[in-house]
Design brief:
alpha/beta; three-stranded antiparallel beta sheet
Length: 166
């Protein structure tokens, strides 16, 4: 998997971050949208995004919702609700805005297979033996695979960035 060492993820594309330092670089707590607020915004996007000088929308709660669903329902929900919402955001802002999903403590739950770049989501208890094909569901195995976000110290992964999903 390619690594991303600059801050382009803060201005465009879609990111899934789990590092608190990365989160603090783009938003303040009172600017974070709940997943419900995000889904209610679909089709009614604001001209200015709430974070990072109008460049970023940070959404919290995706991980909790996935944990509440059985894996088969979670996969269907990601495909039928979350992906269309991401595409709506992407279409509206045409690359001039960043959508960031805050996934605290999920670093070990999103895994990349280094041989194939397949990205999986490891389900929570009681389904922790199952995985979701996160990459196929959300970005349809787009030709440009996501990049691993590395902060300036370069020692740990802060999340994943995808410039544009299809």
């Amino acid at each position: 998997m390619k690594t991303l060492r600059d801050n382009v993820w803060q201005r465009c594309g879609i990111s899934w971050i789990w590092d608190a330092q990365a989160l603090s670089q783009v938003t303040k707590v009172d600017e974070v949208y709940s997943l419900r607020q995000f889904l209610q915004s679909v089709g009614r996007w604001s001209e200015d995004l709430p974070s990072n000088k109008g460049n970023t929308l940070v959404v919290a709660g995706l991980d909790a919702c996935l944990d509440l669903l059985i894996p088969e329902e979670a996969e269907q929900w990601l495909e039928s609700v979350i992906k269309p919402a991401i595409l709506s955001f992407q279409y509206y802002y045409q690359g001039d805005g960043a959508l960031v999903f805050w996934l605290p403590s999920c670093h070990g739950r999103i895994k990349a297979n280094p041989a194939s770049d397949v990205i999986t989501w490891h389900c929570g208890h009681p389904h922790n033996q199952k995985t979701l094909d996160f990459g196929r569901i959300l970005w349809g195995e787009a030709s440009e695979y996501p990049q691993e976000i590395m902060l300036t110290d370069g020692t740990k992964s802060a999340g994943l960035f995808h410039k544009r999903i299809s």
